[in-house]
Amino acid sequence: MTIEVRVPTLGESVTEATVATWFKKPGDVVAADEMLCELETDKVTVEVPAPAAGTLGEIVAPEGTTVGVDALLATINEGAGAETPAAPRAAEAAPAALETAGTVDVMVPTLGESVTEATVSTWFKKPGDSVQQDEMLCELETDKVSVEVPAPASGVLAEVLAPEGTTVQAGGKLAVISGAGAAAAPAPAPAAEAGQTAPAATGKDIAHAPSAQKAMAEAGLSPDQVTGTGRDGRIMKEDVARAVAAASAPAAAPAPQPAAAPTPRAPVPAEDAAREERVRMTRLRQTIARRLKDAQNTAAILTTYNEVDMSAVMEIRREYKDLFEKKHGVRLGFMSFFTKACCHALKEIPEVNAEIDGTDIVYKNFVHMGIATGTPQGLVVPVIRDADTKSFAELEKEIAEKGRRARDGKLTMAEMQGGTFTISNGGVYGSLMSSPILNPPQSGILGMHKIQDRPVVVGGEIVIRPMMYLALSYDHRIVDGKGAVTFLVRVKEALEDPRRLLMDL
């Protein structure tokens, strides 16, 4: 019987991966659940286990091939050559045990770099419901994103171990699926023992993930300095990232201060309490509250203001918006102008694009622009990487696409990390003026506001112009007042005369 080895679910919004390493070659004997190959995505390394014992037949996707979810990787000739003299029926026993035991554990997936726990927010199925492989079982909520958990196999949801509201750790068990469909899933521990053969033992000697070995070499770490979370303690790429973060955390972070006890709530009259509604804060809202307060406690935040005449930008939009949309398939908005103007100013005032690391200042020779986006769940900040190298059309497309995915709760952790500067547009809600709070560890954030016709003096005459107040909040520990004011003036100049962006003035 021929068994197909296919690409597993790679995670929310991840649709393809690259085959990094094959641990077996055609003709090799494999045991059930033994690692066959390793796939690399943009964020994590994924190991693909053998769904059954047998002999590896054809490798359809060799190393270096880009494959999509559920694509065929290889075939296994079940049972052929899988027996050993010491245990002539062991290979046949493993598949039988899978079918009779018929249970598959539903585990918490990898949640993203530095994220170790999540809260079970919603179960879409209840015990006793039939499920299909890859059907969504539940949704987890982390500090920043929602993660959907698919069924690893078809069958019946037998038991829910983590009900809604439970806090679970990465790699923890969520539920159990039973039924005939479980035979196609990776074997649980008892079945692995039943089908254990000599090749399975050699699987423990598999080298650490190639991507992890490269990352360790770059970070100057040895394997004994990293805790592996892969099969048999195998070190994965994300394990190295955690070790590097842990090693740098003491230098990067100030000494933690004892948490202040929350102020007790004042007594509420009984007649008022009966009309109140108490709702637990979501993890996202708790994180927003904590990070904003941490920013105020850590950074020396100061805000400087200016105003900009939006006439020139609005005239360019009126003149070219139809041609722009026809050619590029996206509307010409204000955000690309502000992003370009900020990138231009950051080159002249690099400390606004820097961050503090212990007693060092880290200057960034690139701009990863955060665009603060309001969603039904709270404020998130998707990052436009290398915004300083992108065209108006590229910026508009990426800002629109990430804003849409932010509102749908589909952003990944990687898409919200690494920002060097942030723009927040309170004007879309009608804000006339405000003081934005820094997004740590960044040292600057620009606040945009409502465009409003106001009387201004131009050439000695009072005229009506579309004006916008701008606010730059900055970390006064590394950004002086002169630099902050100059930055805001350069943004104002670029917006009032966009030709300066073309001339690099």
UniProtKB/TrEMBL annotation:
Coiled coil: none annotated. Its cofactor is (R)-lipoate. Residues 207-244 form the Peripheral subunit-binding (PSBD) domain. Keywords: Acyltransferase, Lipoyl, Transferase, Tricarboxylic acid cycle. GO terms for biological process: L-lysine catabolic process to acetyl-CoA via saccharopine; tricarboxylic acid cycle. One of its GO terms (cellular component) is cytosol. Residues 253-267 have a biased composition (Pro residues). InterPro entries: 2-oxoacid_dehydrogenase, 2-oxoacid_DH_actylTfrase, Biotin_lipoyl, CAT-like_dom_sf, E3-bd_dom_sf, PSBD, Single_hybrid_motif, SucB. One of its GO terms (molecular function) is dihydrolipoyllysine-residue succinyltransferase activity. It catalyses: N(6)-[(R)-dihydrolipoyl]-L-lysyl-[protein] + succinyl-CoA = N(6)-[(R)-S(8)-succinyldihydrolipoyl]-L-lysyl-[protein] + CoA. Residues 193-231, 247-277 are annotated as: Disordered. Its EC number is 2.3.1.61. The keyword Transferase applies. Gene3D superfamilies: 2.40.50.100, Chloramphenicol acetyltransferase-like domain, E3-binding domain. Residues 2-77, 103-178 form the Lipoyl-binding domain. Belongs to the 2-oxoacid dehydrogenase family. Forms a 24-polypeptide structural core with octahedral symmetry. Part of the 2-oxoglutarate dehydrogenase (OGDH) complex composed of E1 (2-oxoglutarate dehydrogenase), E2 (dihydrolipoamide succinyltransferase) and E3 (dihydrolipoamide dehydrogenase); the complex contains multiple copies of the three enzymatic components (E1, E2 and E3). PANTHER family: DIHYDROLIPOYLLYSINE-RESIDUE SUCCINYLTRANSFERASE COMPONENT OF 2-OXOGLUTARATE DEHYDROGENASE COMPLEX, MITOCHONDRIAL, DIHYDROLIPOYLLYSINE-RESIDUE SUCCINYLTRANSFERASE COMPONENT OF 2-OXOGLUTARATE DEHYDROGENASE COMPLEX, MITOCHONDRIAL-RELATED. E2 component of the 2-oxoglutarate dehydrogenase (OGDH) complex which catalyzes the second step in the conversion of 2-oxoglutarate to succinyl-CoA and CO(2). This is Dihydrolipoyllysine-residue succinyltransferase component of 2-oxoglutarate dehydrogenase complex. It comes from Jhaorihella thermophila.
